[in-house]
Design goal:
This protein is an alpha+beta fold. Helix content is 29%, strand content 20%. It has helices at residues 12-23, 48-68, 76-86, 103-107, 109-117, 119-122, 128-138, 152-164, 171-182, 202-217, 223-241, 265-273, 280-295, 344-347, 394-398, 417-421, 509-514; strands at 359-362, 367-372, 377-382, 402-404, 427-431, 437-438, 445-449, 452-460, 463-470, 475-484, 488-493, 497-498, 504-505, 521-526, 529-537, 541-545, 558-567, 570-581, 596-600, 604-609, 614-618. A hairpin with a 4-residue loop joins strand 20 (604-609) and strand 21. The longest helix has 21 residues, at 48-68. It is elongated.
Length: 620
């Protein structure tokens, strides 16, 4: 169900009420001692007791700034008693002794944050022996390694909390972790999540969020590093603006999307750390519009609890580390509640997005973002990455050709067949007749030149694919040079289109409209927009695939325009024009020689747009 918001969500008071609406339903799900929060029975990679501790801790990301800003919560006494019980080795709800790379190391970070911001609420009410237990339990952080990625910030926050509370802390490890985190910095405000890792939402809602907390909490003790964190966040803000649509939607891309409105937590942290890079009214608008967008989606269950999923409850797209309590990391967005009512963030008028360029080239993230002013559609075109990992649905979350605020993306149920694979914005290849498809998972080479993205990838050792994407909206062009030593079936998907009851299809009309009778074209329209594909070279058939239910992150049911070809051993060139407009009532606008002229040569393809721009792509 949706979060019922009976106010316009414009003021600090409104945000407090929304937080209350999100956390009030949690009360019956706390354990007797308050140390665990059991929100469901779906499994996760760590034990249920640890998942229940995770649920407990993640709620604090909303409660701590609320209390820091002078607010109150009926849950805080439960939480405080939970801290007493959870850190007491003699209590049945004891959180336990942690191990190396333990999930509980992640969850300790918010306690360090709380010790720094609200010692009067979390430290002073405890008796001396209770304080000793809390310190001892948290200090396990300094005895066990964290993963070599954004996890290192969890140790940083715990030790900063100790330091701010006047407790013994590991200064050497604090400095070592800060230095290591610095090694993950790339350029233009971007980090990678570990050496060779991806650049995704962990940059704004982890690296920068924690860095800005550090900058605010340690400004006097460590002014130089605090300034560096602020400067990097300011540099990143310009690129990250391009990830947001005018209606508040943010780009669905990468892993951990179940954290939902943590997407806007970066803007909350910029305001909290008072980084002067954008008008405060713009920051306010980014946070509040994103929250409004989310609260118009059915992201809660009938008990009012946040669910695992994205725009609706969906375990198909979840990661192995998503427990029923994991989504409450979304409460990071409520950091502005730490700011008083008279702060400029709350007194400023909410402002819309500033004017942004049609294209934003973001090389550290391997992306080119395009925006269509008429529809508000934002799409991120992707070269793909040289590295990969074992996270769930890595190919679907990091290697599609394009990601979209209006069309989202799909994850596979299996690799057998096109319906289970749900291969939107991908080229899927199968050995002739076996119906098991492979897609891009990592790349041997990638580059970006203006609005043309290039990648070299090999789904088999004897199959080489060179891909070029000409970014743009509402049309973009994809070209593939495939050198194969085996016969293949090829299928390329466009944007997946949400559908419930009303759907208009045109497997024939698209062909006739473009005047390319020999070429394949297919498209569909629904109340959620228009999606279509048109072959420019090499594809033999077109079909509207109906992917399995719940494979899409925005809509439970979709249709997927798909072009197909049968390839013999040898060298082939496939080219397609892909259309997407998520505006209600949008109409199909087929490519014609008047809008895009394409000349195919043996060694070069030349595209000329209606504006007279010429793009040359060398095939060798």
């Amino acid at each position: 169900m949706k979060v019922t918001v009976d106010h316009p969500l414009r003021t600090r008071s409104d945000m407090v009420k929304v937080l209350e609406q999100l956390v009030r339903p949690l009360r019956p799900f706390y354990s007797e001692g308050g140390a665990r929060l059991a929100l469901g029975k779906s499994g996760v990679s760590y034990p249920a007791a640890v998942a229940e501790m995770e649920g407990f801790s993640r709620v604090l990301w909303g409660l701590v700034p609320l209390l820091a800003g002078g607010g109150t919560s009926e849950l805080w006494e439960i939480a405080l008693n939970g801290i007493r019980c959870g850190t007491n080795p003699e209590h049945e709800e004891y959180w336990g002794e942690v191990g190396d790379y333990d999930q509980r190391l992640v969850e300790m970070a918010v306690f360090g944050y709380a010790l720094a911001l609200i010692p009067e609420h979390i430290w002073e009410p405890l008796h001396p022996e209770e304080r000793e237990r809390l310190y001892r339990w948290l200090n396990q952080m300094n005895q066990h390694p964290c993963y070599d990625c954004n996890w290192l910030f969890f140790n940083v926050l715990v030790n900063v909390g100790f330091r701010k509370a006047g407790l013994p802390y590991d200064a050497e490890q604090l400095e070592r972790n800060l230095a290591r985190l610095d090694a993950f910095y790339l350029e233009d405000g971007w980090y990678s999540d570990g050496i060779g890792g991806h650049s995704d939402y962990y940059v704004p809602f982890a690296f920068h969020y924690y860095g800005l907390l550090y900058a605010r909490m340690m400004e006097e003790e460590d002014p130089k590093r605090s300034q560096v964190f602020k400067e990097r966040a300011a540099a990143f803000a310009g690129d990250f603006l391009a990830w947001f649509a005018p209606d508040g939607a943010a780009l669905p891309y990468g892993r951990s999307l179940a954290y939902r409105f943590a997407q806007s937590a970066f803007w909350s942290a910029l305001a909290y750390a008072e980084v002067d890079v954008l008008p405060v009214g713009v920051l306010k608008g980014l946070v509040l519009r994103n929250l409004r967008w989310w609260f118009n989606r059915p992201i809660c269950n009938s008990d009012g609890l946040l669910t695992v999923g994205y725009a609706y409850p969906n375990l198909v797209m979840a990661e192995n580390y998503n427990s029923p309590g994991s989504p409450y990391w979304a409460l990071k967005a409520f950091l502005p509640l730490a700011l008083p009512e008279e702060h400029p963030f709350w007194t400023a008028e909410e402002l819309p997005l500033p004017e942004l360029p049609a294209l934003s080239i973001q090389r550290p993230a391997h992306l080119v973002l395009a925006r269509d002013p008429a529809s508000g559609h934002v799409a991120a075109f992707n070269t793909g990455h040289r590295g990969t990992n074992e996270h769930t649905h890595t190919s679907a979350k990091y290697e599609k050709f394009v990601y979209s605020t209006g069309f989202g993306f799909s994850v596979p149920r299996a690799e057998w067949g096109l319906s289970q694979g749900a291969y939107d914005s991908m080229l899927a290849l199968s050995e002739r007749g076996d119906n098991l498809y492979r897609v891009r998972r990592q790349n041997l080479d990638v580059s970006i030149r203006d609005n043309v993205l290039y990648a070299l990838w090999k789904p088999w050792s004897d199959v080489e694919v060179r891909t070029w994407i000409v970014a743009g909206l509402p049309w973009h062009v994809r070209i593939h040079r495939i050198a194969t030593a085996r016969p293949l079936d090829a299928a390329e998907g466009g944007f997946a289109l949400g559908v419930e009851t009303e759907l208009t299809e045109w497997p024939e009309a698209g062909r006739k409209a473009v005047g390319l009778a020999a070429e394949a074209a297919v498209g569909a329209a629904s109340p959620w927009g228009v999606s279509g594909m048109q072959s420019l070279l090499g594809y033999q058939t077109a079909e509207l695939i109906r992917p399995n239910a719940n494979t899409h992150i925005l809509y439970p049911r979709t249709v997927l325009p798909t072009l197909q070809a049968s390839l013999e051993p040898g060298v082939h060139v496939l080219a397609a024009a892909v259309y997407g407009d998520p505006s209600p009532g949008a109409a199909w606008q087929p490519v014609s020689p008047d809008t895009l002229n394409v000349v195919f040569g043996e060694r070069e393809i030349v595209l000329t747009t209606c504006e007279g721009n010429e793009i040359r792509i060398g095939l060798e």
